[in-house]
Structure formats: structure tokens, C-alpha cells
Design goal:
- By secondary structure, the protein is an alpha+beta fold.
- It has four domains: 7-160, 2-Layer Sandwich (Methyltransferase, Cobalt-precorrin-4 Transmethylase, Domain 2), CATH 3.30.950; 164-239, no CATH class; 244-407, Heat Shock Protein 90, CATH 3.30.565.60; 413-486, Arc Repressor Mutant, subunit A.
- The protein is 34% helix and 20% strand.
- The chain has 15 helices and 23 strands.
- It has helices at residues 7-18, 36-52, 88-95, 149-160, 175-181, 184-190, 199-208, 224-230, 268-282, 302-314, 359-367, 378-387, 417-433, 440-447, 454-466, and strands at 27-30, 57-62, 82-83, 86-87, 96-97, 102-108, 114-121, 129-130, 133-138, 141-144, 168-173, 212-214, 220-223, 246-250, 258-263, 285-286, 297-298, 326-329, 333-339, 394-398, 401-407, 470-472, 484-486.
- The strands form seven sheets. The chain has a six-stranded mixed beta sheet with strand order 15-14-18-19-21-20, with helices on one face. Strands 1-2-7-6 form a four-stranded mixed beta sheet.
- Helix 2 (36-52) crosses helix 4 (149-160).
- The longest helix is centred in the N-terminal third of the chain and has 17 residues, at 36-52.
- It is flat and about 65 Å long.
- The protein starts with 6 loop residues before the first helix and ends with a strand.
Amino acid sequence: MNHSHPLDHLLSLLKELQALPQETPWAEFKHNAIKPEDLGEYISALANAAALQGKPYAYLVWGIEDKTHQAIGTNFKPTQAMHKQQELESWLLQKLEPKIDFCFHEFNSPDQIAVVILEIQAANHTPVRFDGTEFIRIGSYKKPLGKHPEKERALWRVFDRKPYEYQFAIESIPEDKVLELLDYPSYFELMKQPLPEGRRGILDSLELDRLIEKNSLGLWNITNLGAILFARDLTPFRQLSRKAVRLILYDGNNRYQTIREIEGRKGYAVGFEGLIDYLSALLPSNEEIGKAFRRQTTMYPDLAIRELVANAIIHQDFNISGTGPMIEIFSDRMEITNPGIPLVDVDRFLDSPPRSRNEGLASLMRRANICEERGSGIDKVVAQTEIYQLPAPIFETYQDHTRAVLFAHRDFKDMDSEERIRAAYLHSILRYLNRQPMNNTSLRERFGIETKNSAMVSRIIKLAIEAGRIKPYDENAGTKSMRYVPWWA
């Protein structure tokens, strides 16, 4: 399974692993190649240990000395390794049950010493077996899980924990209270289903989508998923009321003076269209932008706003309490923030397959046509800013939060070199995803620069290469036919 990480990511991962005190249950260090059977048992033991420790991944590292964690190099080359006339990786995969994600990374440490990191996904709903046996780490030893029933019980307790979406926001209420708290007509409208005749049909549909659950007393529990998406008002749901979307309009380009602050009260799905309409009404409009629009148009593309707000809702970390998605409008930009660090590197938002913390939430938002069917929609956001000829958006993380920034129109001459380089990098990704590497002409059109000024664009390309953001597609092409791709391509 190959998910190649950029080298700087692997080097920082190596540094973190070397800094661990001694072997932990979810990390193991080896010098050289070990027997394939041993390796399979380690994968099972580490995947199960990572689940017990609440870690998303476990690691097996070759080329690092066990006691000192110094890099000593290794002769293990997983990509070339064979076992029983098969590639090692596919042999291991056949013997593992259930099939988990694991990936070998071969690279050199900063002082050019060969190391290999095997990244192993934690077990997530049942213990991982190798060749029919489940293993676990006891101290730094791997042992059959069946011989340690207390660890086995603890592991199943971890698997039994419900995802946040399916935990209960309110418990043991009668059915009329459920229908009072949830905006069920909106649910059927968004799902494009006719409203069932009687109460029974309504409750059955809501239960099918795990918005509500009947308990042993014959009463109803509303799940976090049901409340956060379809509450008529979030206030009665104590822990969720702080998760409502906040909208703040400032006077000027800083946070000193607030003109207006609104806290959403409705569930995300029920309130989404109203929120976007309200937001559009607050935004000033641009008289004329780029060559694409010769009429009054909004300051930011509607599609970009929708995607970024939906993304902030879907990808937030609900375990960070007391804070939810926030939209801030300044005179020169708009910032959309959500609690939680993203599961993919911000530098790779455009091209990475989306990984969502809240799959149930994401799936219902997609079915309600609130956000993109697949993909993060970030590529559409960037494409829209190009059509509108706006400065390139910024995606960044700070203090356990993720933030996207859209900028108001600014003429090319008013952009600083950092903004120009960022625009070139994002443009190169969009072109790369469409299998058309960027060239001088495409970037010139991106900035709305006339042909006679193409030397200005050549300077931006040079700066972006020096900054390590893009690279030539083919070093040996002539100057006129030079094309460029993102640094990681």
C-alpha cells in the first residue's frame, strides 16, 4: 500500500520516533531485516497495541539502534524483498485479517543513513490477526493476545466506544419531544423524500439514519448527529450549543471593532442555506472583477464560500469542547476557522483524498447536497478564486485549529511576492490535477497579465522554484516549452 509522504514529513516523523523515551507499545526499532513471519506478527501486535493506546498509527523502524535510538543504517529493502516467490508486502497483506493499511517508507536520514519506517494503521473494529493469531505487545515483547485476556477485554472495550456522532445528545425522551426538538420536515425535504403519513414512519426514517435511537425503556435518545444537523434550536442540547456556527463582522481589517456578531441557533443542515444567504448579504460587492465579470458581483465566489463553510463543519474535531466553526469578515478578507488539526497536511489539501473525522456527518451533508460528493472541494475553491482573479487563498493551522482565508480582489501590482508564489503553487496543483502542467502562458492568464509583460511571470516562476514550491516538469525542455509541476509531484 503506497501513500508516499514528502521527505520533510518523513524526516520529522523519524525525529519524533527517535525522541521517544524507550520502546513504547506502538513503536519498535530494528537494525536489519527480520524473518517475514516475525514481521507479520509485529504488524498484528503493533496495530492492536496502537488501538489500546488510542494512537492512529503504530511504527516499526529499521536502521535505528534499539537502546540509543541513534541512526545506524539498515540493509532491509522492503520494495525488493521477496518471500515464497511473492513480493513481501503482498504476502503480508494476504496473511493479515482484517486487511489494514500499512506502508513502508525507505529514505535517508539527514546524515544520509538508510532507514525504513513501516507505518501501520491501528486496529479499528476488531483485533488484527496474522496467520490466524492475534498478537499484542506486553512491554517490548509480542505475545499471543489470547494468553492475555485482560488486554483482550480492554481492546474490545476500545472498539465498543461509539464515535462521537452516535453518542447521545439527549436521552430518554418521548416521541413528541423528539419531533419538537428536531426539524424533521427539513430532513425529508433535504433528503428529497416525501414526508411519511404518520408519526411512526417519521421516527423510523430518522432512526434508520441514526439521528435517533430507541432505548430499552421504550423512550428515545437523540444522537449528536441528529442534533447537530437537524436541531430546530441547539440551545436545549447543552454540549452542542457551543458548536453552533459563529459569524463576526468587523469594521476594517483587524479585530478591534466588531460591527455585528451572530451565533447560529439551528442545526447545520437545517440552517446552512440561511447562513449562506445571510453571509452573502453582509459581504460588500465588487463593481468589476477580472475579464470574466463586467457586472456587479459578490466579493467572493459563492461556491468557494459554501465549500469552505461546509468543510469547516465537517472536518471539525468535536472533542475540542466549547468551540465550533467561526466565520470572520474583514474589509479585505474572510477567515473560516474550525477546531481541530486536519488529518492531511494543509500543503496537500488540493490533491489528497479527503479523510474525515466525522464520516456520518460528512455522508449526510453530501446526501443533502450541502457539499461535494467526493473530494474536499478545495480544488473548486482555488479554481473559483482564479476565475475571479482573487489573490490565492491561505490554508493554515494554529493552536489546534484549521483556518482558510479568502482575500478580496487586489490588482497584481499590489500583491507581495509571497502572495504571487502561493498563487503560482496552487495554480500548478490545479493544472497538475488536470494533467496539464503549468506554463508561463497559463500563469499569465491566472494573474490577468498582458502578453507583453510575460517577463513578470517568468520572475514569479523563478521565485516559486527558489522557494521550493514548484519544479520544472522536464529539466531539459527549451525555455519556450518549459512546464512546471508542484514540488511533490
